[in-house]
Amino acid sequence: MEAELVALAVISGATAVALFATRAPRRWHEAGRDQLPGRNASAPDYSGPPPVGGSTPGVARPVGAHATARTRRRFLAVTAVTGLTAAGGATWALARFTGSSARAVSTPRTRIPTHSARAVPPSGTSAVPRPSTSPVPPPVTSAAACYFGTGDGSVHALDAVTGNVNWTQKTGGSPSPTVAGGVVYTGGDNLVYALDSATGMVRWTRRTGNSVTSPPTVAGGVVYADIGGGSVYALDAATGAVRWTHAGGSTTFTASPSPAVAGGVVYTGGDDYAVYALDAATGAQRWTHPTGGSISSSPAVVGGVVYTGSEDGSVYALDAATGAVRWTYKTGGSPSATVIGDTVFIGDGFGGSVYVLDAVTGKLRWTYQAGGPMSSSPTVAGGVVYVDTWGNSVSALDAATGTVRWTYHGSGTFSSVSPTVAGGLVYTGGDDHMVSALDMVTGKVRWTHPTGGSVTASPTVAGGVVYVGDDHSLVYALDAATGTLRWFFPGGGSVHSSPTIWPG
User: For position 488, what pLDDT does the model report?
Assistant: First the structure.
């Protein structure tokens, strides 16, 4: 068998040589004859050195005497490669059929993305990096992806390091994805989708009575999706089968906060002016409590108490087990609450004030007039409260006393972004078409980077990179320490939710 294989290799190489040798001389002769002086007087003269780049755009290079020599060299190269290939094939076959222990190593197939993120800023923009002493977290791994939804009803997954497109899936609606266990869950036009996080393939869909506009909540193998009006779907995370549904008391479906799940109970609300506590396993209603306005933000459940703001201008603290009122506090705006330990931090929306209350008693500890409406919750980190107001101004307040540490005045007129604090910096944005990084201790600007539109969702910081979208369909990846642009991606619609990095 070995002798037969070696002979096969030799015959293959000899056949290739003979084939090229019998046909190539005629090609050389005809090519040279066609380019003799006078036969093609209109042809460009390539007797000199080739132009920069090796060719002239839009002009085919004719074959002449110089090309003839090149053709001979190419013939010899092709002949050699052909012979070596045949010999290599015989060697492989010899090893294969004679029991050699060597194995061929397969090269993994690389999927070529249909779109790629750009590595340069859009026209008219440029990074404004400034020196930074903030520690930079380790870079994100190449396995991580950046997931986000756009206003054209699409969910995108990009390589978090390069920005290359892993996949895009059309869902309709205004998708705000949640990633859990290798699956992307999101709402669409009257549907809930489960998408494979690696490929974007649809694992299952489930039709609902209305569009899901807030990120679904995933807990205990169940997807909880609020469709507005206090109505909730509980779906099996693996199959999409309906575990249970709960019908709220409204059919307007304008407010649909993400449900909160704690202690085997689902807490939610809507525009039917009520807070609901539902059994997570069965959907049975444990209790309900009326409010004077819609519930548009997710409840916070801490220490056996449910804290929620209502558009009636009040914050409610309700017993998580019974729904009994612990206390209420009237702010006058449209409050949203952040609970840290024994303290409740409230931004009251159009009222433009910050209220800090005792979580147990509801007693006011201190208040601060921010100077403009707030449409986002305060961010609390390191004993400091960071609030962003319209005008893209950020104030840092002592969490215990309310004393102003510093204030940064932006150049815009509106902001709906809760500041993001990471690595010693505060990241924010607004309608000034700018992402800003501020020193968390002094408030000094470390760097800014222009965007193509207003920033309407909080930046996401992971692995030393800031990921942020704007309402002009662009998503940016910026170096967290310097603001240098790593990549940007032009999507198909406004980005109104924070990007998710998974695994992160």
Answer: 96
